[in-house]
Design a protein that fits this description.
153 residues, mainly alpha, 6 helices, 3 strands, 56% helix, 10% strand, flat
Length: 153
């Protein structure tokens, strides 16, 4: 998709650039952004050794469309988005602690909310990228078939 090329767009871009130069304080980080930035910094500094487990990943892989070669790359991207979602919400996620001898490994567990969030995002990305219809039926039926018609969280 080619970016819009109109004189109105150019004018709007110039006005925005001029406004940033004239009123820089209007474009400084707001309080909510500063909180988010601090939270991300906290995650980076404190969760370096924490890993994420996606308990339904194997079943998800069995259900993920494989019509095109890009499916392998897409599946990894979707799983990584689920891991990021679980880490971002780690305070609301179960933690699995694996103890081997005197060592502990902590795993944040991805849950249904992570799946739902990522598939919603993924469907938006797919729609914008105009991907094949192979993915269109997938997200609606995959979760039900992975969970055997039941629910998981």
């Amino acid at each position: 998709m080619t970016p819009e090329r109109t004189t109105q767009k150019y004018r709007d871009a110039n006005i925005l650039t001029g406004e940033k130069a004239a009123f820089p304080w209007k474009f400084e980080n707001d309080f909510d952004f500063a909180l988010l930035e601090g939270y991300i910094r906290f995650l980076k500094n404190n969760l370096e050794t924490v890993k994420v487990v996606v308990p339904y990943a194997k079943q998800f892989g069995e259900q993920f469309p494989t019509r095109f070669p890009r499916a392998m790359r897409d599946f990894k991207h979707v799983l990584n988005l689920m891991k990021v979602s679980a880490l971002f919400h780690f305070a609301q996620r179960p933690v699995l602690i694996q103890k081997v001898e005197n060592k502990e490994q902590h795993y944040v567990m991805a849950v249904r909310q992570d799946y739902d969030f990522v598939m919603s995002l993924w469907n938006q990305i797919r729609a914008r990228a105009n991907c094949s219809s192979a993915y269109s039926r997938f997200s609606a039926i995959s979760l039900a078939s992975m969970s055997g018609g039941g629910s998981f969280s």
